[in-house]
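Sat 14:20. Reprocessing the chain from the morning session after the first attempt stalled halfway. Input below, unchanged.
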Amino acid sequence: MMERLSASTPLAGYVVKPAFDPKTLKPGILHIGLGAFHRAHQAVYNDLALAKELGDWGIVGVSLRSLDIVRDLKAQDHLYSVVTRSGAGEGVQVVGSIIHGISAVEDREELLALLVDPSIKIVTITVTEKAYGLDPRTGGLDRNHPAVAADLANPTAPVGVIGYIVEGLARRHTAGQEPFTVLCCDNLPTNGRIVRRLVIEMAGARDPALANWISGHGAFPSSMVDRIVPAATDEGRARAAGLLGAEDALSLETEPFMQWVIEDHFIAGHPAWDKAGALFVDDVEPYEKMKLRLLNGAHSMIAYLGQLKGLEYVRDVMAVPEYRDLARRHMQAARKTLDPVPGIDLDKYIDQLIERFENPTIAHRTKQIAMDGSQKLPQRLFAGTAEALAEGEDADTAALATALWIAYAKRTPDIDDPRREELRRAAAEPAGDDASAPFFALPGLFPQALIDNRGWRNLVNAKLAEIEAGRL
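Finished this time. Tokens:
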């Protein structure tokens, strides 16, 4: 039986290893959301940064729900591999900058103690859009979100990401310490500002003085992150074992490309992420919009198309010429809603996205991307569509993408979405000439400008009729 990856595993020369001794690394970052994306993105950047400039920037990874990932990390001396694959070949890197793992299920007090530990200077987050408890109608807290409701009722024993951050900051305030920087790495537009508002609102519900302190002293830089990271598979783990000569329960496969754009606003410094290729800027918003509307918007369209056509992976959809052309046309239309993006040639960026989506070695499931559409589409698709229509554009491909999502919701009773029951009720309403109406009536989902645009809604209905008649 093959041994498990550990600090004592002999690795071949082609394996990229940490350029530092993970055992001597001290913590400086606490990361909430110890999933695949963080481990293939921010932790990789951290390894590269520490290779350029060593410092006390080890990552303590936190899983709010899972025990398994923390146990697997410990069993492997907190090491794991990231395999990059493309048509040009593959490479493998062992990541060492995560030095400890915590499951909030078992170790809430350890997590709270770390949040008040002065060595922790940055708290980073990747928990998906739905975990924040954001009310799309107000932009503030959704008081009906289970974690939000629990944390408002019992703030000193938090269960949600916002609750943990507020309790950690409250303990720092009481102790007379400076706050930690909160760096959101999820696909939310102006994510730093959104998290800041949610934190201050929850803090204000328990103590207005705490909210004022956070408002005056806290830092919530926005960031844009990009790397395609499919869900791990047994096939991928077997491939990693062949490269490593050891079993790795946490191995991930991803593409060579990665990008991180960060607003340069930190309380107590940060690792040398810029030396690892990250870009520090004064304003992240142009980059966020570019990624959300070009990459994520097209990704969602591809996902719903794939699900409706029985195409399992993004690469399968892109192998159909008419679907690949549709993705490009959608990106070119969405591009018209963007301001210039410093340092980015948008034509080349679109070409690069098409190439990345076509990558034959990356098995990115359309079902994975299709989940949580009610949380993703407002920023990926609907906001840009409202702007395009205001500028006199027809937003034809956006109407098709919207119709694809509605058709997917109507055909998928067990849809994976936090508004599942609302979507099921909308899907069950009799379809008439205005078949999309029950979805446009869902509160806080579509911008009012789209709800009021009868011509564009008629276009959505026409596309939906084509899909349901099998003409697309």
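The longest strand covers residues 80-86.
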